[in-house]
Amino acid sequence: MTIYEQVSKSLGDRDIEAYLELLHEDGTFVFHKSGAQYSTEEWSVIASSALANEGFVQLSSRCLFEAEDILVTHAFMSYPDGSKESVIAVLMKKDDKIIRMETGSTPI
Question: Which pTM was predicted?
Answer without folding.
Answer: 0.91
